[in-house]
What does this fold into?
Amino acid sequence: MLIRIRDRSEPAPSEITPRALFENRRLLMKAAAMGLATVPAGWLHAAAERRKLQARPSTLSTLEKPTPYEDVTTYNNFYEFGTDKADPARNAHTLRTRPWHVVVDGEVAKPRSFDIEELLKLAPLEERVYRLRCVEGWSMVIPWVGYSFSELIRRVEPTGNAKFVQFVTLADASQMPGVRSTIIDWPYVEGLRIDEANHPLTLLTFGLYGEVLPNQNGAPVRMVIPWKYGFKSGKSLVRITFTEQQPATSWNLTLPQEYGFYSNVNPDVDHPRWSQASERRIGEDGFLKRKRRTLMFNGYANQVQSLYAGMDLRKHF
Ligand SMILES: Nc1nc2c(c(=O)[nH]1)N[C@H]1C(S)=C(S)[C@@H](COP(=O)(O)O)O[C@H]1N2
Ligand SMILES: [Mo]
It folds into this structure.
């Protein structure tokens, strides 16, 4: 299981950069704190794979303190690699992120497949520090790297029938052990209304903390929609389809009473099984630390509330 020194998929010590070596020491301490005898293979691999991504700062960033890199990359939801928060960091090293293509199709004048390297260069990369609020009641602040999804939209020229966008994650059991489970009807799918997709905050994301996305965070490309619960932001995307009808979304299909299509962060609409009024900020919560009050639209109300003018957000939860 986790008790092993080194397997063949890991880099030889000579291939590890000094920064990664330093990182490995931190990972070793973290593993010890978790009661593990050694660092899981996936963590080491991720440390060796870290690659820089140049990005310019963005005025759309929050000034809040970012959550430590270690928390961002070891406390994850990515059910394709297991349902435990530590599973993705442990298991996602088996995901092959090159070669990688993303098909963009449906109601567009220019449907096509993008090679990941080409997609990465489609528009200038920005660093966007966003709050991310999980429906489970915790949050993080993450310096993402990407560009507004609207940059992609205008290049494929949606037709007049394009009212929604669906995002589809890879579902390959040979790379993603969690896909053998039946909790979700794979692939993981999510969706936005076209005006939500076109909003400048909606980020096509390739990296975090100035480096390419670790596999557990959705490499090589994912969505980030900061005013919605985290599950709206699909990871490791292979297809983006523009549609006329509202597309299916995984959590709505799985538990329709609990998860709607919109899923805007809303402290006034409780989850049927728990309150959504407050949240725990990962990485800063000592025993005596009080929970934070959850903000409407996760604090992005000024930017996004006009998208929902006239809508009953209790009905469209
Ligand atoms: N394909 C896929 N995307 C997914 C998920 C998932 O299980 N599978 N989990 C979602 C949930 S619930 C959250 S909170 C965020 C977590 O992103 P992070 O691990 O990078 O913080 O990813 C979202 N995207
Ligand atoms: Mo989540």
